[in-house]
Amino acid sequence: MFNVLGDVNWTGALAAFIALVLLGGAWFAFLFSKPYNISLGRDASAKPVASPLFFAGPPLTALVITPPPRS
């Protein structure tokens, strides 16, 4: 399973990961924050608590759920 790690374009994977984090943050924090809060059962104007989990949780879970490349 890990014999394909040498074939991965790591620069492209890192660029895609950074884009995912930035676009996801903009999507949920700025563009659609009111509907997102409502879907979570919060007040529409609620502000999230700026904890380390708030910033590190989404990128870490993205790394966990991203499947490895298939050959």
Q: Can you give a write-up of this model?
A:
With 71 residues, this protein is mainly α. The chain is 61% helix and 0% strand. The longest helix is centred in the first third of the chain and has 22 residues. The chain is elongated, with a radius of gyration of 16 Å.
Quick structural gist:
The chain is mostly helical and 71 residues long. It is built from three helices and no strands.
Descriptors:
mainly alpha; 3 helices
N-end to C-end Cα span: 9 Å
Total count of strands: 0
Largest sheet data: none
Number of helices: 3
> What amount of the residues lies in strands?
under 5%
Q: What level of helicity do the residues show?
A: 55-70%
> In sequence order, what are the helices and strands, one letter per element?
HHH
Mean pLDDT: 81
Shape annotation: elongated
Gyration radius over CA: 16 Å
Structural class: mainly alpha
Topology:
Blueprint: H1 10-31, H2 33-39, H3 52-65
